Sequence to fold (226 residues):
Amino acid sequence: GAVVSQHPSRVICKSGTSVKIECRSLDFQATTMFWYRQFPKKSLMLMATSNEGSKATYEQGVEKDKFLINHASLTLSTLTVTSAHPEDSSFYICSARAYGGGADTQYFGPGTRLTVL
Amino acid sequence: GQNIDQPTEMTATEGAIVQINCTYQTSGFNGLFWYQQHAGEAPTFLSYNVLDGLEEKGRFSSFLSRSKGYSYLLLKELQMKDSASYLCAVLDSNYQLIWGAGTKLIIKP
Fold:
């Protein structure tokens, strides 16, 4: 099946620094990728929808200047958490949308655990 | 390699019971999640199992057997709104999520 990878898998950073997380679709092209945030034992909160070659669409309440999203190619989207603070510590998960055989499917990445000290 | 298997699609009748199975082979185990996802929406958390046994939450129950690498989600008194995709995901030893491809559940009147 389709594979989505994320890098890094975990990162620890100091408060005030910026962290970049990559999301790649390894064996298919994804014009649309999604970024989620997961709180412990909670639903995934959609942060933004990333479309290749255009600006991301952010959900209400998500600061676009803090969570920068770039979808530069059909296989790569990046999320940069700028000036990270401890409250940004979370599990960030991306997914990539694939169309094929009449099906519209989302494939999820393994997640990136961010800890801000 | 790591993998999670669940049926691609299931069909059930309104008011009936359906069981969605999930088998997994992962490097380590730190819990198993079930999510419900309606088309065009973000996945909604249903359950988290880390110990063997059955956990019941209203119409939904989730079962885990770690020795068998097996879980199921049981949905009772099916309603039309239960038509959705159901995702099984395992947290491995590195606390990475390994996702199943999802089971599309179709409810018929």
Remarks:
- The mean pLDDT of chain B is 93.
